[in-house]
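anyone seen this seq b4? input:
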Amino acid sequence: MPEPSPPKSASAQRPKDQSGERPKDQSAVHRVEEFDYDLPEDLIAQQPPAERGTSRMLLMDRATGALRDDSFADFEKHLRPGDLLVLNDSRVIPARLYAQRTLVRDRENSRSPTAGPGRWGDEKPTGRIEVMLTEPAGDNRWRALVRPGRKIAIGERLIFPSPDGAIALEAEVVERGPFGERLLEFAPLRNSVDDFFVLLDQIGHMPLPPYIHRDDADADRNRYQTVFAHERGSVAAPTAGLHFTPQILDALTAQGIEITRVTLHVGLGTFAPLRVERVDEVRLHHERYSISAAAAGAINNARREGRRIVAVGTTVVRTLEAAALAAGNNPIQPHSAATGIFISPGFDFRIVGALLTNFHLPQSSLLMLVSAFAGPERAGLDRVLHAYRHAVQSRYRFFSYGDCMFIA
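predicted toks r here
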């Protein structure tokens, strides 16, 4: 299903760049099925809270695993002056599209001589398919998931109608991958970047996860987006950031909390389920990230001065720890790269000292990351599963629009 699905992310490819290498000190003995828990479906949040910043928050003492119930409205009480709070400012794009098949598969002869922009010509569209854009792949090209994808062959041309029936976008399938993956090449536009995103805003839908059993609504354009979102490119929200309001951020700054931003664009790794049995076999899709000069300076200063670095969400954890691995023993440099870093119990965290995160799906790579942060080896997994059982019993709301957890 080509909509953001449980954050269970793996591919068959081992990451090749330095930031995507699997650290050697991670445990290789866990099985994926160990990262499991029972969750009643009625605890999966189908709507955001009525107001941002009003979610519940479960506190975990990272040293002992002790738990305490609280509210995100009191988040500032758990930070201290000098802390560096790191946000992910990636912006979710309306990446869920509906296309019609033309059944045309011959590139040389597919276009009707009478067809022009916005016209069907002699080609009659047939069948509706769902297309989830996952990441850009060069000029006019996007990787995507399609449903139903079994019959969508290389060379087939897809058309994306606007509400008035005209053709808004056209694309050709140029590569085919497993599990519904396709590489699409879109017909050029006059201003291929800006015009493309303008059209996405017009015809696209917000990519709500499949465990939210409803169509996206107008309100999701705002609520499935952080208030500090800026750099467009994600196809799923960095959900820990959804709890913040401008007022909360201002209050943190007034309290002496330093705030900086990095960017990691959430991509295909959010969709793909883990298809292996052992944790040491997990390989994640790469996701693009960038760290500005200002962010690198703030991070390096905080590390040098021994101040705590608080990550808002697992995407920030992955960005910071990937950058630390790439830098080795040197300060982090401003840069852009892609990372397939996979964090599981046994990982040696170099930067992150506290973590705000939502509750994650069973047997997901993000649950493994949280378990790694919560304690050494088996202790972290045991603490997180205990915390999740407590959250279920206390009827916390789970997943993207749900409540949160602060581990410090």
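The radius of gyration is 22 Å. The helical segments are 194-203, 220-223, 246-254, 293-304, 314-327, 365-374, 377-393. kinda curious what u guys think
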